[in-house]
Recover the amino acids of this structure.
């Protein structure tokens, strides 16, 4: 049942955590409904942070409890009246509801309260629209917004018929404004899908080129505001925008990363995840998220100082499963350990000696070297041992082996050729085979020499 209105569930602006930043900042009423006996207060706090990230002034927070959502207003008749009263009292311009409302529930609550109603999905889409900077990011956000809007068009009062009878071929009712809006949105969605498909093909081509060159891809994933962009900047010396706010960065960024015993790798910084990530966003950002699903290694960045750490890990794992990336090898990166007492940078290993987690502080650069070591260990494949007979004219190839420090033994033949044994990572050996096809011939010559 709906809880009775009380001062316990109405908080003023001073308690909302953020003051207005400009005279044009919209005042908002936040609404959250507890649908179980256990009150998920962490979810409400996160929603308040989302609202602050959108740049609104939180005038009041209204909460209630129900076993099931109300079919007309989602929150119930009594709570809806309370919300309408709060809108009038605080002169609010928008109602933010921490749930996914149906088009009818959104329309009914908006008509009752006399102001705009934005549900959780709409709020996240608005934040994404503010953060998008690249051409692809803007296309993806616009596509998600149109998909969300297409089911929420309402009939306008008056001027319904766009064509009037009176001339040959124009008699009778014409196309209504609602039908026109739906048709235009459908056409716009198709146009955006076609443009994104071109971007997707370009990404796929770039991905295939990296795969042919055996360049491993490392994708940063994690809950929003876990410190992914800060870590990305520390690893690659990039200048990606990083801030203590939800969805600070939206557009994907790729940078080269040099790793010992592995060589060149590509590090990808992706959008942060969140609980109840809207399906429209997962669909719209499919091409971007594919960088994650087809990566060679995932760095799951975790805010070690967050009280909701375990819940955030579960939320990220759920999204990874939704985008078919849950089988990609991963390395846990517990960030922000400088906010914890008694925790020093270190690496944990499994029973087979493979790294499973790295504890570090990206902002203060503590443990970055440990992370690079762990990444190299995760990407390093089984070693390949080869015996080669290098002629005197292959000094460039010998120099490559010497730089990689992979020569186990060598001896000179009476003709001045080098008979060497090397042990190198399998990925690096495959790269050398493509760069120097004559290595296969040198391996055969070594067999003849030893015979």
């Amino acid at each position: 049942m709906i809880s009775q209105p009380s001062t316990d569930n109405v908080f003023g602006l001073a308690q909302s955590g953020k003051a207005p930043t400009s005279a044009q900042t919209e005042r908002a009423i936040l609404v959250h409904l507890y649908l179980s006996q256990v009150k998920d207060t962490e979810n409400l706090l996160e929603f308040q942070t989302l609202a602050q990230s959108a740049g609104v002034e939180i005038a009041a927070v209204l909460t209630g409890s129900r076993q099931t959502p109300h079919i007309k207003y989602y929150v119930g008749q009594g709570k809806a009246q309370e919300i309408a009263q709060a809108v009038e009292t605080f002169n609010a311009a928008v109602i933010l509801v921490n749930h996914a409302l149906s088009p009818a529930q959104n329309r009914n609550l908006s008509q009752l309260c006399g102001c705009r109603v934005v549900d959780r999905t709409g709020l996240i889409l608005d934040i994404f629209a503010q953060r998008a900077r690249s051409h692809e990011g803007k296309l993806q956000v616009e596509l998600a917004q149109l998909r969300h809007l297409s089911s929420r068009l309402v009939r306008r009062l008056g001027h319904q018929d766009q064509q009037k009878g009176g001339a040959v071929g124009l008699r009778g009712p014409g196309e209504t404004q609602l039908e026109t809006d739906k048709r235009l949105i459908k056409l716009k969605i198709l146009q955006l899908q076609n443009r994104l498909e071109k971007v997707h093909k370009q990404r796929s081509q770039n991905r295939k080129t990296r795969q042919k060159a055996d360049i491993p891809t490392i994708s940063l994933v994690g809950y929003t505001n876990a410190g992914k962009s800060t870590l990305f900047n520390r690893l690659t010396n990039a200048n990606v925008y990083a801030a203590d706010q939800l969805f600070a960065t939206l557009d994907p960024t790729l940078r080269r990363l040099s790793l010992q015993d592995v060589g060149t790798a590509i590090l990808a910084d992706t959008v942060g995840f969140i609980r109840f990530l809207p399906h429209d966003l997962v669909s719209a950002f499919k091409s971007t998220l594919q960088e994650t699903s087809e990566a060679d290694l995932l760095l799951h960045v975790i805010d070690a100082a967050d009280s909701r750490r375990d819940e955030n890990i579960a939320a990220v794992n759920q999204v990874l499963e939704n985008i078919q990336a849950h089988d990609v090898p991963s390395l846990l990166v517990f960030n922000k350990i400088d906010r914890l007492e008694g925790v020093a940078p270190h690496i944990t290993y499994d029973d087979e000696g493979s790294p499973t987690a790295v504890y570090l502080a990206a902002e203060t650069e503590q443990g970055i070297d440990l992370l690079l070591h762990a990444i190299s260990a995760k990407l390093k494949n089984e070693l390949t041992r080869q015996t080669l007979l290098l002629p005197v004219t292959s000094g460039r190839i010998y120099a490559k082996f010497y730089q990689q420090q992979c020569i186990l033994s060598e001896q000179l033949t009476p003709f001045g050729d080098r008979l060497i044994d090397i042990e190198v990572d399998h990925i690096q050996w495959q790269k050398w085979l493509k760069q120097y096809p004559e290595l296969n011939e040198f391996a055969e010559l070594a067999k003849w020499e030893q015979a």
Remarks:
- Residues 335 and 436 are 41 Å apart (CA to CA).
- The chain has 15 helices and 14 strands.
